[in-house]
Amino acid sequence: MSRSYKELAVSSIRALQPYQPGKPISELEREYGVSNIIKLASNENPLGPPPAALRALQSSAQDLALYPDGNGYELKQALAARHDVAPDSITLGNGSNEVLVLLAEAFLQPGLEAVYSQYAFAAYPIAVQCTGATARVAPAFGAGADMPLGHDLKAMSKLVNEKTRLIFIANPNNPTGSWLPATALRSFLESLPDHVVAVVDEAYWDYVDEPDYPDTTQWLGEFPHLVVTRTFSKAFGLAGLRIGYSVSSVEIADVLNRVRQPFNTSIPAQDAALAALGDSQHLRQSVAVNNKGLQLLGEGLDAMGIKCPPSVCNFVLADFERPVGEIFEALLRAGIIVRPVANYGLPNHLRISIGLKEENQRLLEALGSIIARGTPA
Ligand code: PMP
C-alpha cells in the first residue's frame, strides 16, 4: 500500500489553503489562446521598474557568482536614513511577505494566538497557520460603514488575551483598499498589552495621500512593540525582484535576524532597491498615474452602477452584487486579468488593479460590453 505523504505533513500545514496569486499572462495565453493581454490582477506598477533600478541591475549582473551581503549593509543604511532610525532596526525580506512569515515564526507556536481582521491580506492566515498557532479573526466593518469592510479596531481589541503574541493591521488593507487614521491607530497601539507585537503592514504607504494617514515608522520610539512593514513591490515597481523590509526596535530586528535564511535577499534585489530609493521621479510619476487611474476607474465603474468602497491603494474592489465568476471569465476571454476574491469571503467582488490610462479604459469598455450583452445571464 502506498504511503500518503500528505498525511505525514503536520496537521497545521495539511489544513492550509495555498495562496492564490493573480493569473500569469503566459497561463492565459496558453489556456485561452488570447493575445494582447493586460494584467490588472496583482497590484503591480503599470509604469514598470524605475530606470535607475534597471541601470543598477545591469552592473549587479557581474557579481552574480558571489553570495549577497546577507546583512544588506548599503540598503539598510539608505533605509535607516529614509526613516530616521538605526540601521540595526531594519530587517530585509524576500518581499515584505517574508518578513510577515519571519514574525510569525519568531513569535508564534501552538497554544499562542494572532489577531487580524476579516478581509485582511491573505498572507496573515497562512503565516499564522504554518506555526500551529490559533488565528482570531475580528469581524470587519459592514458594507454601509464609513470605511466599508475596513478593520474594526474595537472588535480586534476584544480578541486580545494573555495568549496573543501578534496582531496584524494592514494600513491600507488589500483587498478592501480601506485605511486607518492616525488617531484611531495610535490609541489602539497604546491600549495593547506589552506582550503583543503589533505589525502594521504599510505595503501601499507611498500611494496614500490622506490628511490623517500616519507614517508609523516615526512612532517606533514610543511603541517598542511596533513593527512596520514596507515593500518595493508596489509604488517602487520591483515586485519581480522580491524585496521588502520591516522597521522595528533593534531588539525585535535581532530576533527576526535569528530566523531568517542567511542570504534571503539577492544581490540584484538589494542593488535595484537601493537605486529605486534614489529615483524619486519614477515614484512621483507612479503615484500620479495611480491617482488619475483611481479616479477614472472609480467614475467609470460608478457610471455602470458598480460600487467600490473608497480605496487609497493601487486597486479598487468592485462590488457586482452577484457572484462574479462569469464576468471574470468573460474578461479573461477579452484578454483582461483581474482578481476574484471569493477566497476572502467576497464572492460578489472583483479586485481590479490600476493600470495605465489605456489599460483602465480597455477594462471599462470590456466590462461595459459584457454588462450590455447581458453576459452572463
Ligand atoms: N501586504 C499587503 C497588504 C499586500 O497586499 C502585499 C502584496 N500583495 C504584501 C504585503 C506583500 O508584498 P511583497 O511580498 O511583494 O512585499
Q: Quick one: overall form? A: globular
Instruction: Going across the biggest sheet, name each strand in turn.
Output: 2-8-7-6-5-3-4
Mean pLDDT: 96
Helix/strand order, N-terminal first:
HHHEHHEHEHEHEHEEEHHHEHEEEH
Strand content: 5-15%
Q: What is the count of β-strands? A: 12
Q: Characterize the biggest β-sheet.
A: 7 strands, mixed
Termini gap: 49 Å
Radius of gyration: 21 Å
Structural class: alpha/beta
**Proportion of residues in helical segments:** 25-40%
**Low-confidence segments:** none
Number of helices: 14
List each distinct ligand once.
Answer: 4'-deoxy-4'-aminopyridoxal-5'-phosphate
Describe the structure.
The protein is an alpha/beta fold. The protein is built from 14 helices and 12 strands. The strands form 3 sheets. It has a 7-stranded mixed sheet, sandwiched between helices. It starts with a helix and ends in a 5-residue tail after the last helix. The model has no long low-confidence stretch (mean pLDDT 96). Bound molecules: 4'-deoxy-4'-aminopyridoxal-5'-phosphate. The site of 4'-deoxy-4'-aminopyridoxal-5'-phosphate has 13 residues, from helix 6. 4'-deoxy-4'-aminopyridoxal-5'-phosphate binds next to helix 6.
